[in-house]
Amino acid sequence: MFETFFPQLIGLCTGALLLTSALMVWRHSLLASIRLLALQGVALAALVAVIGIAEGESELGLVSLLILSVKGIGLPWVLAYQSKASIKQIQESTRLNPTAALLAVTLLSILSYVVVSRVFGLGDSSTGHAAPIGLAMVLIGFLLLISRRRARSQLIGFLVLDNGIATTTFLTSGGVPILLEFAVSLDVLLVVLILHVFTGRMRTKFGGTAVDQLRELHD
Amino acid sequence: MTGIGAGLLLQLGLGALAVVTALLAAPSLRSRAGGILCTLIAVTGFITGLAAMLGATGGLLIPVALPMDPLLLAPDRLGGLFMLIVSGVGILVSIYSMSSTSGPDASRTAWVAMPVFLVGMQLVPAATDSVSFLLAWEIMTLGSTVLLLADHASRASVASAGIWYSAMSQLSFFFILAGFAVLAAASGGTSFSNLQAIEPGSAAANVAFVLLLLGFGGKAELVPLHVWVPRVLPEAPSHVSAAMSGAMVKIGVYGGLLVCVRLLPDGPAWWGIAIMLVGGASALYGILQASVSSDLKVLLAYSTTENMGLVFLGLGASMLLRGYDATAAADAALVAALLLAVSHAAFKSTLFLGAGAIIHATGERNLDRLGGLGARMPVTAVAFGIASLGAAAIPITSGFVAEWMLLQSLIHGGRQGGAVVSIAASVAMPIAVAVIALTAGLALLTFVKAYGIAFLARPRSVEAADAREVPSLMRISLALGALSVLALGLLPGPIAALVATTVSSDPTAAVQTVGLGGVSLPGIGAVLDPIMLVVLSALVAIPVIVAIIVSARRHPHRTVDLPWGGGGSRARPRMQYTATSYAEPLVRVFDDVLKPSRDVQVTHVAESRYLVEHVRVEQTVSDVIETRLYRPVLNLFQRYGKAARHVANGSIHRYLTYSFVALLIVLIVVSL
Q1: Does B205 reside within a domain?
Q2: Are residues B419 and B289 in the same domain?
């Protein structure tokens, strides 16, 4: 029963991951981006859970819970830790217009399919077929990093990149030991916390968090 | 642990203690405590070096986890000699610098850097593998750079000197690193015993030889890598200049010897000729610039280039002669080069310390504003005078013995048993003799100028007229330096015999002691006995002196009061010869090489064009090599550097875009 659904579930989860990444490039509102990031975390947790059930490993269930709590709930909550009213008004003015950005996302997705299939081979399993999604997410995260001006939006790009790495790991090798996953998640949480404090300081010091203005500090 | 190992460990321990003391000690105690600890470091190095030179073995193993040959500090005889030279200068400098109690020389930074510099210098000759060699080398460079910058806050030229020094040091380091890397790649190890296995004629050896010569030549102030010298040595505090010129430059010489004598002996003939060319050019160019300089420390700095040129000339001659199996002459040339290095360490550090004493007393280093210091600073004057004799290679000083021995080996080296050794040698040797002769003549002029203008005649400025003798520790240090110059000159035999054991396979065939500490070169049949010379000249001089005294007794002294003072009583100090006017004929003779720029401004009286109110003459002699060779290259770099600023403009987005684009390119390339 489950075997027939398994490829479809994998497709659903990875499709959700790719879709949320693409939508993040498209949307300009910070709140929307954070919500999409939470959704992406949930999708990643679901993907891990599906793989865990398919391979019959209870450990992956724990990992799934961990990912859900950190990437689905914890990190978005930290990022959105501000009054709802003020965060709704934050609009990102990107360095790339939405049409060009979506076009770039398409090209990056195609590129990652080409790269994975030519270099590593897609294999026969349904997880192997979905593996390019991970690389595509990494590239899209990078695109977010370079196209966003605000420190917090850049942080979201960084987290998408991290999600992409995690996705690739789970799809290609069936996950990593729980201890390692735990450590990596905590690291990411720590980075986000530090950068969050940092952007708070930036805002009080310079009145904004546009990273562009930091160039004045060189020399 | 052996005695050598314990000595090396003690140096490291004392160095660490000195750094901690400099950091923690109160400003009033810092100079004393730091100076005493630095003196102890140098004394330990001196004893360790002496023991190693006399043949003691042993060393200090530094454990590392990296996959390479072990790091071992174990000086051989040659290393011991250079450790001795470096730490001897270190003792002088440490005693001297103890007396500065305020200002940048007594700052915490300077006293932290001083032991680092000393320990680094003393460990370079102890290294037996390229990694620990480079490590100690960098420690030395780091310490000297910080010391140089001690005075940067009050003088802008120090910062510029610091940039030149850092750039040239890194260039040297790059060449040395590349040279050792080539050797290590060809031999499969980093220790010197592995590197020795390279065939000297192979391509790797040739490439490494050129790279290492460039690297060590840069440190040894050879032309055309000397451009840092006239900026750095004058701008550094004087005791630091003394340590740099007296000791650090010798480490460059040690590097040259390491390559040519220990690692790659018996190289092709062109190696020796190349080193002779570079050495001869450096000697001539250095002394020419020194002879026309009127800045005392610039003069001493350029004279260092000259002396190191002579050392390398001797080294090159010895390599060339050894290639034609003229072993005795080759050994004599090599021993002469080493003696020149030893004596240069003695007289040049004394001269720089003397210059420091002059600056301490007058605040001036421009010779044109000095004069009359002989009566006001007698100890400094005597020490500086003896060291000047050494620098001008006058008998009974160390410089003379070394240059005499070098000339002997060059004159007799071209022939062996009456037959010509080779065409190359019989062409190269006479040219080298001519170079040394010209150099010696110009050196004499230079140091007559340096001593005569600074210490004799009348003061040319108020500062010089108000000069007072320097504190006692400075005087002690100067006296020690002058004594060592005399000792090396009066007892050349035992010293030369000892030095010969470090490089020669058959030292007694090369150099022997004769008479009262005299030196004999049995291989080429030459003898020099300075004490006998002194006794002989005393035998000649004493009857003359006695006769003068007796005749003076017979004719009692009459006071003569010339009515118009012989023209001398109303002469003003401005009417005396200055350093610039003394060197004027030289500037005219060597006009084509020196390319001086002259500027004459005549101001006329307002009423008539035919009457002159005053005339201002300005003459600057710039470094031709710097303006013709370095400036164009630097301008080119500057242009590309400015263009490159647009590439790296500080925008984080731009940097991220670069890495993103790079990643995409890599992905596209691997999938093609």
Answers
A1: no
A2: yes
Say yes or no for a CB contact (<8 Å) between A142 and B651.
Answer: no
Final residue in a domain of this structure, among B516, B538, B555: B555
Specify if B437 maps to a domain. Answer: yes
Which residues does A contribute to its contact with B (CB < 8 Å)? 95, 111-112, 114-115, 118-119, 139, 142-143, 145-146, 149, 211-212, 214-219
Query: What is the rounded distance in angstroms from the CA atom of residue B389 to the CA atom of residue B444?
Result: 8
Residue in chain B lying closest to A218 (CA): B650
In a domain? residue B40: no
Q: Are strands B518-521 and B415-416 parallel, antiparallel or unpaired?
A: unpaired
On whether residue B398 sits in a domain, the answer given is yes
With a cut of 50, list the residues of chain B below it in pLDDT.
none
The domain tally of chain B equals 2
User: How many other CB atoms sit within 10 Å of the CB of residue A219?
Assistant: 6
Chain A residues lying within 8 Å of B671, measured CB to CB: 111, 114-115, 118-119
At A219, the pLDDT band (50, 70, 90 cuts) reads: very low
Mean pLDDT, chain B, whole residue set: 87
Buried-state track A28-42, b at ≥16 Cβ within 10 A, e below 16: eebbebbbbbbbbbb
Contact yes or no for A12/A127 (Cβ under 8 A):
no
User: pLDDT for A18-29, tens place per residue?
Assistant: 999 999 988 888
Write the CA distances from B584 to A184, B300, B380, integer angstroms: 76, 19, 27
Question: What is the model's pLDDT at position B565?
Answer: 65
Q: Cβ of A212 and B649 within 8 Å? A: no
Q: Based on the domain organization, do B551 and B629 belong to the same domain?
A: no
Give the domain-ending residue among B508, B539, B555.
B555
Query: Would you say B131 and B82 are in contact if contact means Cβ atoms under 8 Å apart?
Result: no
Q: How many domains does chain A have?
A: 1
Q: Which residues in chain B have their CB less than 8 angstroms from residue A212's CB?
A: 651, 653
Domain that holds residue A24: 2-217
pLDDT for A105? 93
Q: Do B671 and A142 touch (CB under 8 A)?
A: no
Task: Say if residue B658 is in the same domain as residue B515.
Answer: no
**Using an 8 Å Cβ cutoff, are B213 and B270 in contact?**
no
- Among chain B residues, the shortest Cα distance to A211 is held by B652
Task: Write down the pLDDT at residue B174.
Answer: 94
Is residue A83 scored above 60 in pLDDT?
no
Chain A positions touching B657 (Cβ under 8 A) are 146
Segments forming the whole domain that contains residue B328 = 276-555
Please tell me the predicted confidence (pLDDT) of residue B413.
73
**Candidates A114, A139, A212; nearest CB to B651:** A212
Size of interface A-B (CB pairs under 8 A): 42
pLDDT of B248 reads: 92
Q: Is B644 within 8 Å of chain A by CB?
A: no
